[in-house]
Structures are given as structure tokens and as C-alpha cells.
Amino acid sequence: MTAKLQLNSDGKIKHFLSIEGFSRAILTEILDAAESYSEMATISSKKVPLLRGKTISNLFFENSTRTRTTFELAATRLSADVLNINISTSATSKGESLLDTIRNLEAMHIDMFVVRHALSGAAQFIAENCAPNISVINAGDGRHAHPTQAMLDMFTIRQHKKKFAGLVVAIVGDILHSRVARSQIQALNILGVNEVRVIAPKTLLPVNVEKLGVVPYQDMQQGLEGVDVVMMLRLQRERMNSALLPSENEYFKCFGLTQEKLKFARPDAIVMHPGPINRGIEIESSVADGEQSVILQQVSNGVAIRMAIMALAMQSGG
Ligand code: CP
I want to staple 138 with a disulfide (CB 3.0 to 4.6 A). Which of 69, 123, 266, 311 is the partner? Predict the structure, then answer.
């Protein structure tokens, strides 16, 4: 369903709601387009007139630092007009429905919605119900998907490792509640890595996790053995409705990434984290700020990837 909704009749990106359903060719097209936007960021004139005259509305119903600001910067660099809706001061707080908010913004001739919402499926709901000329980009919905985060992660991996074939990637932490992990697993498998591992306590792994295309581990030494990329995740406390862990100290002892545990991975392994990071809970400061960390490069790459996705979606007649 999402797959059909995401592409227009020419097979081009119309909405970007989930990695699922996109081909390797389309994901590679996004990575290649982001390459040129990334080079642009190093020159003094960072703007292109590609989306001049278009209006993009950022609708963030959940908090964000990285995603919202990099979407805004990306839209500005493409010369679009940006409308940031402050949900906490909008009429949503007076009981206006999501659909009525969308209808009112449509009346202002918006061309694209960038949506973050606590409910899984919110971005798809908007895509199914908005005017046909509008594109919708999912900036994170519940525990379902965070596809632009996964794409900037893929871009960062390609920068360092050059190709996906042959790579062993470990995703560590709260897989159960993570929309980032779901999107990363899909992207890594579509792009053809050798193996995706997930390392977590059993209480933080979905039932039948193997069906997602991963090999599960509950031990850091075994799971990190020989990996090329270590992707750390935050404990998603806001989505936990029962006590799934004995304590944060215990969690850090078993699953926190320390210099000592990182030695189990390949010596040239890169360390990633989508942010926000909780130092001393899932990652030690000396690793987060260390030589193998590419965490801030991920943030920089968020601008280029989001420029690429917005440009491709609008150029397809969105
Ligand atoms: N990675 C990520 O989604 O961060 P924000 O919540 O700050 O946007």
C-alpha cells in the first residue's frame, strides 16, 4: 500500500513515507543526488533555485532538534519558502483535528508537508487525504519509520565504506521501540549489505525479529565481532509502558558502547548514533567523541539527504 502511494505513475518519488517498497535503484538515486548537495555545502553560495516559488510546511507534532532544523535548512537551500507550524501554539491545542489543520494549510497553497507525529501511520494518513498535488515526507511516525534518518545514515556509511556489499552492520539497543532501526534495517537490506545484526536484551527485541532480515545477539562481544559499522540507539523511554530493564546502570554495563567493547569490532569500524545521545547510558563519552565516531557527520549529511529527497519528490510533479 505504502509502496504504491509513494511513487507516481512514472515510478518517481511522490511521497517519502517509508523505506519499504523502494528499489535499490531509487535509494541509490537519492544517495547520488545527495552527493552533489553535500559538495555544495562546502562552497560559499549554498543555494540553488530548484524549488523557488514552492512552499514547504514543517508539521512537527513531536519534539525534534536535528530533523526539523535540517529539513528547514535543506528547504531554504533549495530556495523554497518554509512555513514552520508551532504545534504547541497552534489551533491543535484548541481541539482542531489533524485533517482540519491540513485542509487549512492546503488553502494556503502548500506544496509539501514534512510530518513528525507520535502516531504510527500519521504521515501516510496525510498523504492519503491531502490534495493530489502535495507531497508528504515522513520525518518520523511513532515506532513505525524514520526514512530520511535511515537515508542519511546510508549516505554516511557509503562515504566511509564506499560500497554496501560485504559489510557487516550491528544495530545496538532499543530495537523494539525504534522507528530508526526499522528504517535502517530495510535500507541496509535493500542496498545489499552482507549481514545486519541487532544486539539488545530480549525485552528490547521485537518477537520474531529475524523476519525483519537481521541476526539477533544478546551479547556485545559476540555481536560486535568483526563488524564494520556500529549503530547505537537511544532507550526510547517515551514509548516504554512497562519496566523492560533492571536499571540504566545495568543496561550500560551490558550494552553501553565503551572503548573496551568497541575493540570487538573491526579496527576501522565507524560508530554511529541518530541522536539525541544519552552519554553514560547507551554510549561512553570517549566513544561518542572519539576518532571512530561519525555522529556529527550524520547530522551534516542530514541537510544534503533531505535536499535530495525534497528535490526529487517535487520534480516528480508533486
Ligand atoms: N535523529 C532524530 O530524529 O533527532 P531529532 O529527534 O532531534 O530530530
Answer: 123
